[in-house]
Amino acid sequence: MEFSAPAKLVVLLFFFVCFASPSIQAKPVKYCDKKGDYAVEVNGIEISPDPVAVGKPATFSISASTGEEISGGKVLIDVSYFGVHVHTETHDLCEETSCPVSSGDFVLSHTQTLPGFTPPGIYTLKMEMENENKRQLSCIVFNFNIHFGSSFADA
């Protein structure tokens, strides 16, 4: 089957838009305990840009909801690379979202620039959220990609 020059251009542009440009895409979420009864339910995760570029800011936005008011707490993050633990950090919940968190929907958002020596590949991030009394409110796991340098869209 032979394609005309305009058809080839359309196909090429389609692949460029879908695969080469940075985008915001929802990531699938897994709970740490499938049978866990978490007070905070995660509805989705968006990473921008996706894949994350080394040396450039990346924003992780986590859409969630709760049935209870949360006055404070911590967000604990563990990152693994090919199953090997590579990074841990802890953030004040109220620095990632507005506190107190009212019953209903809210968003946790964190922007970070990865150091230039970060190797490209698929990483696994585990995020635990706990209240000010150290009671676990949620625990999720998701994957994200890191690549070197800039994309075509940066040019």
UniProtKB/TrEMBL annotation:
SMART domains: ML. The keyword Signal applies. Keywords: Lipid transport, Signal, Transport. Gene3D superfamilies: 2.60.40.770. Residues 29-144 form the MD-2-related lipid-recognition domain. GO terms for molecular function: sterol binding. It holds the Pfam family E1_DerP2_DerF2. Residues 1-26 form the signal peptide. GO terms for biological process: intracellular sterol transport. InterPro entries: Ig_E-set, ML_dom, ML_PG-PI_TP, NPC2-like. Monomer. Belongs to the NPC2 family. Catalyzes the intermembrane transfer of phosphatidylglycerol and phosphatidylinositol. This is MD-2-related lipid-recognition domain-containing protein. It comes from Nepenthes gracilis.
